[in-house]
Amino acid sequence: MADPIRVLIVDDHQVVRRGLRTFLEIQDDIEVVGEAADGDEGVARAQELGPDIVLMDVKMPGTDGIEALRELRRLQNPARVLVVTSFTEQRTVVPALRAGAAGYVYKDVDPDALAGAIRSIYAGHVLLQPEVAGALLSDEAGGGGSASAGRGSVLTEREREVLELIADGRSNREIARELVLSEKTVKTHVSNILMKLDLADRTQAALWAVRHGLTN
Fold it and tell me: How much is the pTM?
């Protein structure tokens, strides 16, 4: 049997943490390895425990989830972060994703859908809900993204195909199967895309593709 997905829960409400833990602990393939009540503690616990996935609230006293995301990126922590929050405003969604979150779901999400989201993020997918994509498009329209759009011209046709599939939520393995390539070749294409577009990770690449219309 494969090792379980190791999950860290970061939320300032004990009731929320307890509810998430209770549900996740009945999943055969998910193990809750720890909890944290704020962003600072969440970063420290992530460094200590080495989880695969961090479930991160956004609004917390002291260091909030967005700052914690930025700190995890600065520390090059490999954990993928799934934001779980009750806030739906664009001013919350967009910064969280730009800070490195691999996905964004709401606290009223169906429990089975949450477990599915954790498995999807763990498999290398980027979880962009339609309303989140809409917020990003609106943000781009307001912020003026024409300069970054021009960088897309440096991509090869194959790199554009890979980028479209990243934005579609595909993992490297699925992209390799779709394009009849090896996973190693796909990883090389992803690295080239990030370098050429000056992006930090595949989440940012997916957001870039959404903003510039490279999605189906």
Answer: 0.71
Q: For residues 149 and 152, what is the distance between their CA atoms, to the nearest angstrom?
A: 6
User: Which of 91, 37, 82, 86 minimizes the C-alpha distance to 60?
Assistant: 37
**Sorting pLDDT into bands at 50, 70 and 90, what band is 31?**
very high
CA of 113: how far to CAs of 56, 80, 120, in Å? 16, 17, 10
User: At 99, is the secondary structure helix, strand, or coil?
Assistant: coil
* Residue where the block lists tokens 């998910």: 30
Strand order in the sheet with 53-56: 30-36, 5-10, 53-56, 80-85, 103-106
Three-class SS state of 53: strand
Residues 170-194 have pLDDT tens digits of 888 999 999 999 999 998 999 888 8
| 45: enclosing H helix or E strand | helix 39-49
DSSP conformational letter for 180: T
The DSSP symbol for 153 reads G
Contact 62, 68 (CB under 8 A): no
Strands 80-85 and 30-36: unpaired
CA dihedral 17→76→113→128, nearest 10 degrees, is 130
SS3 70: helix
